[in-house]
Amino acid sequence: MWRSFAHGVHVDGNKSLAADAVIREILPGKIVAYPLAQHIGRPASPIVSEGERVLVGQTIAQASAPVSADVVCAVSGTVKRVGAFLGVRGEMVDAIVVENDEQYETVENFGQHRDYTQLSPNEIRDLIKAAGIVGLGGAGFPTHIKLNPPEPEKIDTIIANGVECEPYLTTDYRLMMEQPEKIIRGLHIILSMFPNAKAVIAIEKNKPEAIRLLTEKVKNEPRISVAALKTKYPEGDERMLIHAVTGRYIHSAQLPAAVGCLVDNIATVVAIDEAVCDGLPLTHRVVTVSGDAVNEPCNLRVACGDLYSHVIEEAGGFKGEPKKVISGGPMMGLALFSLEIPVVKTSSCILAFAEDEVEESKTTACIHCGRCLRACPELLVPRSMHAAAQAEDFERFMALNGMECIECGSCTFVCPAKIPLTQSFQYARRKTKALLQVKTTKESGGEK
Amino acid sequence: MTEKIHVSSAPHIRCDVTTARIMHDVIIALLPCGVCGVYLFGWRALWVMLTSVVTCVLTEYLFQKGMKRPVTVTDGSAIVTGLLLAYCMPASVPLYIPVLGGVFAILVVKQLFGGIGQNIMNPALAARCFLVISFAGRMTAYPFLRTVQPPVDLVSSATPLMDLKAGQAVDLWHMFLGTHSGCLGETSVAAVLIGAAYLFFRRVITWHIPVAYIGSTLVFCGVFAAFKGAVPADMTMATYLVAQACGGGLALGAFFMATDYVTCPITNGGRLVYGVLLGFLTAVFRVLGKSAEGVSFAIIIVNLLVPLIEKITMPRAFGKGGRAK
Q1: What is the DSSP string of A33-82?
Q2: What is the DSSP letter of A404?
Q3: How many domains does chain B have?
């Protein structure tokens, strides 16, 4: 039996489109933009001002709170402005806009090689923090915080997440195929901070080449192994992955460290290696450009801050007019209405579809079939949660464990009545969070 | 391009299963029973089926038109109701009976409660019960095989379950093939199983309800029959139970009617509880009750308990003790 988790859905992966495209580096366009909030936590504070010259590898915004992350510039040029720029969610976000002078002049010590074995855990964490590394799988949790759990000796499993369960995405697959040494060295860096831990590289069995290659590479590594998992969406979710690999369970209010685990995406592990050993901060990431409306599906190494429109142009452009363009995978990604938005640390994929399946599927009445319930990896009852959300009964939504929902989209994918369940949960979860916040503020106010 | 590009909430892909596809699968799965009914009881069976289906579809169409609601007859659910209703009446009924039944099923049981997904009982079975009560003679006058020549008078032969009740031995092979008198679509267990296999293959139904229902019917029938001494003299308990499994509407009910999504629990645990309750009631009606039949009443009664069953079998969330299969 392959290891996995309960429920979930089988989605057509469509990975063959870009799976064999070797990662190609592209140079950024004339304008690059760095949103201050590319991570979970407090937005970074800008430390450069308009008109100032910046260099490759220069920190342009600094972590403003314990849970926050630095932002590092990928180009040399002039700061055009510090202000509003269009973000991926379609709203204006605070950003630092830099005009690229295409000189790529670097800061001092850029690319300085180091021997990680000579570094203490604190020094490693400081390097990771200064490199601006956050979880590159999509959540964007600051990595230096994640690597600093209260009791490091209780961590027994480091999971390198190479599952990549979202259809179309092939960035982690390409990293595993092209840079296995960096992944293994990156894991050694993490392991050096956790004396009692072993590392597991988790890969779904739809990537047999990667499983074979990495199994071969870790043959003589006593502390690193490869776990081949059953192909199922959303296995790459942190909670599902921990369960698939270790059999342990966590809920929304727990961090993986509560069950002795740390989960880092493959791309994050590579970024840690580059930051610590090669002295390269997080200025670039791998982005898959795919979908039936792009000319050449490919994997590109893109500078953070580069605009989507420029990336697509470099990728080979659209085949005719796309009906839908998505940032991220088709299950959890965000549909875009403009391509003049910057690539951020968590941008994994740009998808363009010639047809919009959602538009074509008409919503009909719920027939109570239970498919949503059998798809939900969190073992919730989406049908009842939807009813509560529609009635704006957020107490009931919470009682139904609506806050455990990971918005993975599985229920919506399988629904024969084509009800936009995930959409209603996104709404209800934000509403509930806001209400809870109002409640706590009121209560604490009452005590005074 | 920015004017033509679509923006919607994730996920951006959908699986190809739709309500209409599910209903079409059920219709396909019901065909073997229909063919069997026509073979066993003649063309008259086809007329009953057509009348029932046309009435159901037309009722739904006219009601939705009249109420200025979106017309949903293309989803095929009214056809399923029409077929199931026809399958649980004798081929010899006058055609006004399927017309009345179809109107009752769609108008009263389905549309007045809010249409597809909202009915609290299986429409076909509720209509059948309405007809059995209103036209007891016509609805229980089972014609001899291939003898249906309308309009028939109340000439009828006993169904195997009536024979069992009367203490006579029955031929199990005939019961399995369906070559005996009874309702037009439910006599042949073989035809039901062919259709059910298709439903499993298309993943329209899960095993929980049929297994729990038929299994518990046999257990409770066995217990009650032993207690009451109801097993006919020249049958063993085993053959008696096989006859109970093949008799009446149990097979059709367990695979096609009890599994109706709208009126069964959505949790797997709930489906097991629901199946056991159905088995218990069916056995009570069949062995302890006055009538030989019990499936349709058992199903519509337990349909009403579904919200309670769901309430006690809600899954626990992952990470909060949830361990669902």
Answers
A1: EEES--SSSSPPEE---TT-EE-BT-EEEE--SSS---EE-SS-EEEEEE
A2: G
A3: 1
- Indicate whether A145 belongs to any domain: yes
Tens-digit pLDDT profile for residues B122-159: 999 999 999 999 998 888 888 776 654 444 444 567 88
Q: How confident is the model at residue A1 (pLDDT cuts 50, 70, 90)?
A: low
| Subunit contact A409:B11, Cβ cutoff 8 A | yes
Last residue of a domain, one of A229, A249, A277: A277
Note whether residue A298 is domain-resident: no
Looking at the domain assignment, is residue B4 inside a domain? no
Which member of B1, B75, B261 has the closest CB to residue A368?
B261
Contact A358 B17 (CB under 8 A): no
- How many domains are contained in chain A? 2
A330 and chain B: CB distance < 8 Å anywhere? yes
Give a yes or no: residue B74 inside a domain.
Answer: yes
In a domain, A355, yes or no: no
Q: How far is A249 from chain B (nearest CA, A)?
A: 5
Chain B residue with minimal CA distance to A372? B266
pLDDT of B103 higher than 90? yes
The CATH number that applies at residue A225 is: 3.40.50.11540
Are A259 and A390 part of one and the same domain? no
Interface test with B, best of A401, A404, A415, A430 (most B CBs within 10 A): A401
In a domain? residue A36 = no
Average pLDDT over residues A39-47: 94
**Which chain B residues have a beta carbon less than 8 Å from that of A379?**
315-318, 322, 324
Which one of A277, A312, A333 terminates a domain? A277
CATH number at residue B177: 1.10.3430
Both A266 and A379 in one domain: the answer is: no
Res B156: pLDDT: 63
Range of the domain at B218: 19-311
pLDDT of residue B150: 46
Residue A443 belongs to domain spanning: 371-447
What are the structure tokens assigned to A64, written together?
A: 């403003």
B11 chain-A contacts, CB cut-off 8 A: 330-332, 409, 412-413, 422
Query: Does any domain span residue B320?
Result: no
Interface contact A357, partner B, CB < 8 A: yes
User: Per residue in A333-375, pLDDT tens?
Assistant: 999 999 999 999 999 999 999 988 888 888 999 999 999 999 9
Q: What is the dihedral of CA A138, A139, A141, A147, to 10 degrees?
A: -70
A234 prior amide bond cis, ω within 30: yes
Dump pLDDT digits (tens) for A59-69. Answer: 999 999 999 99
Q: How far off is chain B from A25, nearest CA to CA, in Å?
A: 27
Q: If DSSP states are collapsed to H, E and C, what string results for chain B?
A: CCCCCCCCCCCCCCCCCCHHHHHHHHHHHHHHHHHHHHHHHCHHHHHHHHHHHHHHHHHHHHHHHHCCCCCCHHHCHHHHHHHHHHHCCCCCCCCHHHHHHHHHHHHHHHHHHCCCCCCCCCHHHHHHHHHHHHCHHHHCCCCCCCCCCCCCCCCCCCCHHHHHHCCCCCCHHHHHHCCCCCCCCCCCHHHHHHHHHHHHHCCCCCCHHHHHHHHHHHHHHHHHHHHHCCCCCCCCHHHHHHHHHHCCCHHHHHHHHCCCHHHCCCCHHHHHHHHHHHHHHHHHHHHHCCCCCCHHHHHHHHHCCHHHHHHHCCCCCCCCCCCCC
Q: What's the pTM?
A: 0.91
Query: Considering CB atoms only, which of B14, B261, B266 is closest to A418?
Result: B14
Residue B214 lies in a domain: yes
The answer to whether A383 faces chain B, any CB pair under 8 Å, is yes
